[in-house]
Design brief:
Elements: E1 12-14, E2 18-21, E3 27-31, E4 34-36, H1 61-73, H2 75-86, E5 93-97, E6 112-117, H3 120-126, E7 132-135, E8 148-154, H4 162-175, E9 176-186, H5 193-198, H6 202-211, H7 221-230, E10 233-243, H8 251-256, H9 259-262, H10 265-276, H11 281-301, E11 307-316
Parallel strand pairs: 4-7, 5-6, 5-8, 6-7, 8-9
Antiparallel strand pairs: 1-2, 2-3, 3-4, 9-11, 10-11
Helix pairs in contact: 1-2, 1-11
Length: 318
């Protein structure tokens, strides 16, 4: 796979343990299969998302019956459904942006899959499945112009700070071929009732909804879609992920186990349920399956900005 220098955009030559930029003579080391373009790892993200996701193949008859319910709730399955709907064999070169440990689903399509991430530990795992991985900022990607047939990201864009979004979106557009496909499952903010409730306490909202997961760049769904259009992408398809009245198991405990949250009746009930099924994995799976369906139905009917999360397919405007 071809790389370019993220500093001067010059062509680079691969050596045994480094990539060398011929025009500016910069040398970027390769460690454990990871091309390193950052001097320092990001302390927040280093080692956070190291697991390699494997392609979903519900081979059994019960697995096929449950698949629509799993897609209704699981964000992983929303993303898998997005990839399967839009990717094909003609998308031979794919970029996984914010790749973590890699995603086996992309290997079903791309003959060459590249990964970019901030975390070295995550990329070390991704290097075992991808053709090329780079520890780099998404605002300075080490890939040539018009290079990829498609790019994809899972829960990445909500981590891009507002003052970096323009540069990151411009890079996504630069490395995609004309008419190239961009597929994103992304976190958003919301005007839904529970979001309005937690925003009553700005300190709580910042701590539990932003800082906890690094969601420094979440914005309303309508604003997110308009940003894509402004940055040169046409919106091909949009799926709203959820309404925030239903949570997968563990989310209530993670975010709302405090006195402020317990003053809200619905949050208190969800929190009690999380604690009640804490050591009952079968009930946890049953809860996720049952609640996923009404969540998706409500999301399809609700106003766009009352929902949370988007699965979106875009095409680079020529």
């Amino acid at each position: 796979m071809e790389l370019v220098c993220p500093t001067c955009c010059g062509a680079m030559r691969s050596e045994s343990d480094a990539w060398l930029c011929e025009p500016c003579a910069r040398r970027y080391p390769v460690r454990d299969g990871v091309a390193c373009f950052l001097e320092d790892a990001d302390p927040f993200y280093e080692g956070m998302f190291t697991g390699t996701r494997h392609a979903e193949r519900p081979e059994t008859f019960p697995g096929r019956l449950l698949l629509p319910f799993r897609i209704a709730w699981s964000l992983d399955m929303h993303y898998t459904a997005l990839l399967r709907r839009h990717l094909s064999a003609r998308h031979r070169r794919i970029l996984d942006l914010g790749c973590g440990g890699g995603n086996g689903e992309l290997l079903r399509y791309g003959a060459e899959v590249a990964g970019a991430d901030l975390s070295f530990a995550s990329l070390r795992n991704a290097a075992t499945v991808y053709s090329c991985v780079a520890q780099t900022s998404a605002s300075r990607l080490p890939f040539p112009d018009d290079y990829f047939d498609a790019l994809a990201s899972f829960n990445f864009l909500g981590h891009v700070a507002p003052d970096e979004k323009e540069a990151v979106y411009a890079e996504m557009r630069r490395v995609l071929k004309p008419g190239g496909l961009a597929l994103h499952n992304m976190e958003t903010s919301s005007e839904g009732a529970l979001f309005r409730y937690v925003r009553r306490d700005p300190e709580f909202y910042q701590r539990q909804m932003i800082d906890l997961d690094g969601h420094v760049g979440i914005e309303l769904p309508s604003r997110a879609l308009q940003r894509f259009r402004d940055e040169g992408f046409d919106v091909v398809n949009v799926r709203r992920d959820h309404v925030w009245y239903f949570f997968p198991y563990g989310q209530a405990k993670k975010r709302f186990d405090d006195d402020f949250s317990r003053r809200n009746l619905w949050l208190r009930l969800l929190l009690q349920l999380d604690h009640a099924i804490e050591n009952r994995p079968r009930l946890q799976k049953a809860w996720d399956l049952v609640m996923g369906v009404p969540s998706s139905l409500f999301a399809a009917l609700a106003p766009l900005d009352r929902t949370i999360g988007l699965s979106v397919a875009l095409r680079k405007r020529n």
